[in-house]
Amino acid sequence: MSFHLSVTENLLGSLCDLQVFTATAIVVSGLIQLKLQRLTMYHQAFIIEYWNLALYSFWAARQDGAGRFGNWFWSSPEDPFRLWFRRLAVLCSTVLFLAFYGLAIRRMHNEWDIFGSGKCLISHDRSSDDSSWFWLAGLSLYAITLSSSLVAKARGFLLRFSKKVHEEKYELLKRCTDRWKKRRKSVRDSLGLVGRIFAFFIHVFGRILSGLVIWRRCARRRGGVLLRIVGLEFLRFDRSQTKQQAPPAGEGI
């Protein structure tokens, strides 16, 4: 690994660790203001959006662990203290946000007092009031997975399960790739035979078409000469008939 990439991954891991604590602190402040009934709608939306961004950092922090210890799966039972403590802090932040978000969902769908301080935003969202609970259920599953990953036996099970899933994924990908290569080769051979037959028919059709064009041009020329001959003969015949029908000079005078 290059020096710049190593420094970048270490910096990314440190920033992600910092964001775990800032996200936890802002959720705690939201819970305190919610208890004191001083939480405005804007502050509530800011807490939710900031923690959602912090959730991406939690996943980005796994890259730091993979770069340090060469483990792309769930952490092994011989886990260093930093990664274990990071998961514990993420779990605490997730549990606190679950409590805050559960209270915020009930609060969001109530009627806001547009004349009260900090509650002057009128929402025209027509989504169902229960749609936010799906996101809460997904975060609950994430918290359960984090809590189980803190136990050594559970981490070992998750490690074996993740490796098996990745092996099955690569095997399935390899199988699909091989099948696609065989199918592409058979299709290419079939298209080659069809292409040669099609090229033969195109060649024959082109020859026939060029012959018809040449014959048409010759027929036009021959037809024009024939018409000229017929016209001249008709003109000569007409003049001879006119001479025969004309009376002799001086007759009838």
Question: What do these coordinates show?
Answer:
The chain is mainly α. The chain has a domain at 3-150. 80% of the residues lie in helices and 0% in strands. The chain contains five helices and no strands. The longest helix has 94 residues, at 152-245. The model is unreliable at 67-78 (pLDDT under 50).
Based on the model shown, name its key terms.
transmembrane, 253 residues, 0% strand, membrane, transmembrane helix
Helix percent band: over 70%
Largest sheet: none
| Distance between the amino and carboxyl termini | 132 Å
Beta-strand share of residues: under 5%
The succession of helices and strands, N to C, reads HHHHH
Task: Write down the overall geometry.
Answer: elongated
Indicate the low-confidence ranges by residue numbers: 67-78
Number of helical runs? Answer: 5
Question: What is the alpha-carbon Rg in Å?
Answer: 45 Å
Give average pLDDT, whole number.
70
Furnish the topology, listing elements before pairings.
Elements: H1 3-35, H2 41-69, H3 81-108, H4 132-149, H5 152-245
Keywords: Membrane, Transmembrane, Transmembrane helix
Transmembrane segments: 12-32, 88-105, 133-154, 191-215
